[in-house]
């Protein structure tokens, strides 16, 4: 599990540390300033990324993606969708 954004590694380090300070931990960040991975997920919005989440399979193919600015506030719904999608590829 990773957080992918077009932010620079320095910007991501600041956010990563803020999450650690607030919650005691964070997940790793991937810097994608050219939006290549973000584009692969179908989440490129001009020169920035939509907020949301998605999943790759073990072959590096996009299984699904969801654009949702409120994914964090709707975490129960987000987690349910991720679990359902994961169950579909792990069978």
Gist of the model:
With 91 residues, the protein is an alpha+beta fold. The chain has two domains: 1-33, no CATH class; 35-91, no CATH class. It is built from three helices and six strands, in the order E-H-E-H-E-E-E-E-H.
Mean pLDDT: 92
| Elements, N to C (H/E) | EHEHEEEEH
Radius of gyration: 14 Å
How many domains, in number, for the residues? 2
Helix coverage percent of residues? 25-40%
How far the N terminus sits from the C terminus, by CA atoms, comes to 20 Å
- The residue ranges in which pLDDT falls below 50 over 5 or more consecutive positions are none
Shape: globular
Number of E-type strands: 6
The count of helical stretches stands at 3
Q: How would you sum up the major sheet?
A: 2 strands, parallel
Order of adjacent strands in the largest pleated sheet: 1-2
Percent strand equals 15-25%
Query: By helix and strand content, what is the structural category?
Result: alpha+beta
InterPro entries: Thioredoxin-like_sf
Q: How are the SSEs ordered, and which strands pair?
A:
Elements: E1 3-5, H1 9-23, E2 29-31, H2 36-40, E3 44-45, E4 48-49, E5 52-56, E6 62-67, H3 75-89
Parallel strand pairs: 1-2
Antiparallel strand pairs: 3-4, 5-6
């Amino acid at each position: 599990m990773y957080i992918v954004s077009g932010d620079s590694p320095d910007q991501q380090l600041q956010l990563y540390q803020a999450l650690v300070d607030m919650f005691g931990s964070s997940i790793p960040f991937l810097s994608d300033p050219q939006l290549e991975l973000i584009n692969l997920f179908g989440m490129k919005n001009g020169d920035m990324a939509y907020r949301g989440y998605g999943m790759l399979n073990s072959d590096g193919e996009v299984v699904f993606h969801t654009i949702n600015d409120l994914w964090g506030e709707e975490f129960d719904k987000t987690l349910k969708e991720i679990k359902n999608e994961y169950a579909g590829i792990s069978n």
